[in-house]
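Tokens in:
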């Protein structure tokens, strides 16, 4: 009996039963124009890469099974999330990971799961699939790959080590298994006080670096020293004094305007001065009587050295003029402009890509595209930081990231050149900055560990391992890396807070939310969400078409969206009654089955998500679904980190089985809205501790992952409910970081690329300060409008497989309203009670939209990252038909919102 049949019969544990093995088509039957190939790498389990063919694939999931592989899903997510894979010829078909390693009860952690990769005909690199295997339709000549190990949420790490061509139809022998190892080194930290003392000692009279035997200031090294000191101590007096020295007109002119103060600046010098101003709180538009950013923009090369009348310092169109022949000025100028909130010309950003070599690394020489190219890890780190900050060059950044990982030596260091075998402090410093910024903190930490072992007794660094001569230009990037920061984060301008005339709505909402100006059609979007082919009997969405297995997390996302728009309160009532009154899906599961309340698998994200819905529509979260969700949340607060292999508690203050920032934030919001501020104190403290210096939050808890729009937006919404100054400052930093991630088309990066999901959450987050970020919000709404289809639904991402996606649509519909998870109420007055299904509901017969489950997401929701994670929430509490205790909770929740808004208004930041 198959898993689907068991589900129809109401057997929930069917997903722990392996799927049946199909008779596979011979691999030779698949060609470049017929069928598709799938490759599964069993290397981590002692096997090899196994290939299979399906000449008529319908979905990626079917391709895997028709090619002869078997799979097992999870109890929590159903068969859509592939937890185990087996193959008949490998260990008698044993599925991996085995039950003793992974119980497949909840969604596996992102450091140990089967990731899904695809490549179309002609593509030579893998793409992390933005669609689940059940939603993707392979085309003739396509090749899929499944790799066990770790990846980040966006899939920019953990790629197969074999290429698509290695496993295509007619390809050669099976490639080598995946090497999942990285540098294994003991932890280490740079001695920052010692480094700071040495750097300060290099400043003559405390203000300038002077080369030995000279009295002439070395302006370049003075600027570098100021940057390092500013990184080590944000308000460093020594850094400020050096910056003031450089800003004297005579020194600015001598350094950056050697051809005359009215001539084009030397780009590397002007960029360094601008970066110093940004890092020390100065104004890069007023340094030594010059607008450095304006001058950089004004003199971008419009032609190259092959022009009839060449411009000195211009090699190619898009160059920032320089006579040094070095590419660093180009990257520094791009970072400096963006740090001052100035968009560099597209040609200037694209010019950086000319310096990328075939292996993904960058050269330090200002070459033309196609010239001889030798990759250097230091130059690669700097270029990657600039391109990532600029946006729009994801492919080049991904290649640079892969290059840095391949170039990293076993001891954690990186060599000065790609062919080197000895680590260089200069190269390792810049590479570590880039690796951390791009979401590889484990490798960045290994690089810092190497740096800690190379630091000289004086606190300085030599050029490479074994050296004894202290060098400023090597010490500076090493110190910035040692602070676990990077040049972009150090110099990014934080916008000044300004008062907002419109704060988040806190009162009960009864009428429909107006369509935002320039935004998507909320009425059509809501109709898409409530279409009976999607919302079964008006009660829930299926996880997998035809199974009757409810996706409770996605269902709550839909309820959040309907609550935010107010376009169909009757449909919202149908969902709420189903969840609240113990309604059963087609397999007999209830809301309690999904939250795992009362069991060791209870998830803080799932509990918080359900409680938040109850609070949003005026139901009592202490009795919702027949359970006290608030008490369960309090019980789910971890007293300490659980020792391996138990991963239920990431740390003190985390919620049990909440493996994402999204999950943590949902739990915090639910507790605060319920008036349980004291009980939420440790979860709040833990959430705050996860914020990065940049202002962002990463996606996952307890394992490596990159900074993410979705997680940062939801964390800001959670902390915005708290009135204290520290919380509000954290929100302000988060919003500044969010705004900086916006793409030129108004979209935001997410797990699926230029993501609808992430853009919607960014709108919610930025709307916490709608005056300051009005421009960004307007652009994001226009982006969302461009992704809405005729049926009212939304694409997953701008460049994804076209067609409306239910999960993305729940996010977009609610997110476009700009309503925070923490502040809006939707009254169900005027609606009528709905009958509650008892498990006899018929499964749908048509495919639902893609199921995209992010590793580590045990909440079954979206939001790209989280257990319970999810979509657009709208909160606030309307007390209709509930007891006096709930009234008190409502008043407490509203009081917190008012207190936060009052404080921010007094500060001049928010209403």
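Residues out:
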């Amino acid at each position: 009996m198959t898993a689907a049949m068991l589900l129809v019969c109401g057997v929930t544990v069917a997903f722990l039963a392996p799927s049946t093995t199909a008779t596979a088509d011979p691999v030779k039957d698949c060609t470049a124009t017929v069928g598709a190939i799938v490759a599964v790498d069993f290397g981590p389990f002692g096997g090899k890469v196994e290939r299979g063919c399906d000449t008529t694939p319908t979905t990626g999931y079917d391709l895997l099974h028709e090619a002869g592989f078997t799979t097992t899903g999870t109890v929590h997510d159903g068969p859509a999330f592939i937890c185990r894979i087996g193959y008949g010829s490998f260990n008698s078909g044993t599925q991996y990971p085995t039950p003793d390693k992974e119980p497949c009860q909840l969604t596996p952690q992102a450091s140990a799961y089967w990731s899904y990769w695809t490549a179309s005909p002609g593509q030579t690199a893998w793409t992390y699939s933005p669609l689940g295997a059940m939603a993707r339709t392979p085309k003739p000549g396509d090749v899929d790959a499944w790799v066990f190990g770790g990846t980040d949420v966006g899939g920019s790490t953990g790629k197969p080590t074999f290429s698509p061509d290695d496993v295509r139809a007619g390809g050669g022998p099976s490639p080598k298994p995946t090497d999942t190892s990285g540098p294994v080194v003991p932890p280490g930290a740079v001695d920052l006080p010692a480094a700071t003392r040495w750097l300060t000692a290099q400043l003559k009279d405390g203000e300038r670096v002077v080369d030995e035997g000279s009295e002439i200031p070395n302006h370049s090294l003075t600027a570098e020293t100021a940057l390092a000191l500013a990184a080590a101590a944000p308000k460093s007096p020594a850094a400020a004094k050096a910056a003031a020295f450089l800003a004297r007109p005579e020194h600015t002119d001598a350094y950056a305007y050697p051809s005359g103060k009215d001539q084009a600046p030397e780009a590397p010098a002007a960029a360094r001065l601008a970066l110093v101003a940004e890092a020390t709180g100065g104004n890069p538009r007023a340094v030594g009587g010059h607008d450095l950013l304006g001058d950089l923009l004004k003199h971008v090369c419009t032609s190259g050295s092959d022009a009839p009348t060449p411009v000195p310092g211009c090699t190619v169109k898009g160059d920032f003029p320089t006579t040094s022949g070095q590419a660093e000025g180009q990257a520094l100028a791009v970072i400096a402009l963006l740090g001052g909130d100035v968009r560099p010309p597209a040609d200037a950003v694209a010019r950086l890509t000319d310096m990328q070599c075939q292996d993904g690394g960058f050269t330090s020489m200002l070459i033309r595209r196609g010239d001889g190219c030798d990759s250097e890890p230091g130059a690669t780190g700097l270029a990657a930081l600039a391109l990532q900050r600029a946006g729009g060059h994801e492919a080049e950044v991904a290649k640079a990231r892969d290059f840095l990982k391949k170039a990293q030596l076993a001891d954690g260091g990186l060599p000065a050149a790609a062919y080197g075998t000895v680590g260089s402090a200069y190269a390792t410093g810049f590479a570590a900055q880039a690796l951390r910024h791009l979401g590889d903190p484990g490798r960045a930490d290994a690089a810092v560990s190497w740096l800690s072992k190379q630091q000289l007794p004086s606190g300085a660094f030599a050029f490479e391992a074994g050296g004894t001569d202290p060098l400023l230009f090597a010490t500076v990037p090493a110190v910035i890396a040692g602070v676990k920061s990077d040049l972009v984060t150090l110099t990014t301008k934080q916008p000044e807070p300004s008062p907002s005339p419109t704060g988040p709505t806190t009162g009960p909402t009864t009428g429909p939310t107006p369509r935002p100006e320039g935004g998507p059609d909320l009425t059509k979007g809501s109709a898409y969400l409530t279409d009976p082919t999607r919302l079964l009997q008006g009660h829930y969405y299926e996880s997998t078409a035809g199974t009757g297995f409810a996706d409770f997390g996605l269902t709550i996302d839909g309820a959040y969206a309907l609550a935010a728009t107010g376009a169909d309160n009757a449909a919202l009532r149908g969902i709420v009654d189903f969840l609240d009154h113990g309604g059963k899906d087609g397999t007999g599961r209830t809301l309690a089955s999904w939250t795992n309340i009362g069991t060791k698998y209870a998830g803080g994200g799932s509990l918080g998500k359900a409680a938040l819905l109850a609070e949003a529509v005026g139901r009592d979260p202490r009795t919702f679904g027949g359970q006290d969700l608030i008490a369960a949340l309090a019980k789910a607060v971890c007293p300490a980190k659980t020792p391996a292999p138990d991963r239920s508690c990431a740390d003190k203050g985390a919620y049990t089985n909440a493996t994402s920032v999204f999950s943590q934030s949902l739990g915090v919001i639910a507790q605060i809205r319920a008036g349980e501020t004291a009980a939420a104190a440790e979860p709040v403290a833990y959430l705050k501790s996860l914020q990065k210096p940049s202002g962002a939050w990463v996606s996952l808890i307890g394992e490596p992952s990159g900074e993410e729009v979705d997680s940062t937006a939801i964390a800001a919404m959670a902390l915005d409910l708290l009135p204290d100054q520290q919380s509000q400052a954290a929100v302000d930093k988060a919003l500044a970081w969010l705004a900086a991630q916006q793409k030129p088309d108004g979209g935001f990066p997410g797990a699926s690329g230029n993501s609808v999901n992430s853009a919607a959450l960014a709108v919610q987050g930025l709307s916490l300060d709608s005056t300051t970020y009005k421009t960004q919000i307007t652009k994001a709404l226009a982006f969302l409008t461009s992704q809405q289809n005729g049926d009212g639904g939304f694409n997953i991402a701008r460049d994804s497989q076209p067609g409306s996606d239910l999960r993305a649509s729940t996010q977009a519909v609610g997110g476009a309203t700009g309503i925070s998870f923490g502040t809006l109420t939707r009254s169900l007055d005027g609606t009528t009670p709905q009958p509650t299904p008892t498990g006899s509901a018929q499964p749908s017969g048509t495919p639902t939209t893609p199921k995209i489950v992010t590793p580590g997401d045990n909440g079954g929701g979206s939001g790209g990252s989280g257990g319970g994670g999810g979509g657009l929430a709208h909160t606030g509490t309307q007390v209709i038909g509930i007891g006096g205790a709930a009234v008190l909770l409502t008043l407490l929740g509203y009081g917190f919102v008012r207190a936060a808004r009052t404080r921010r208004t007094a500060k001049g930041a928010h209403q």
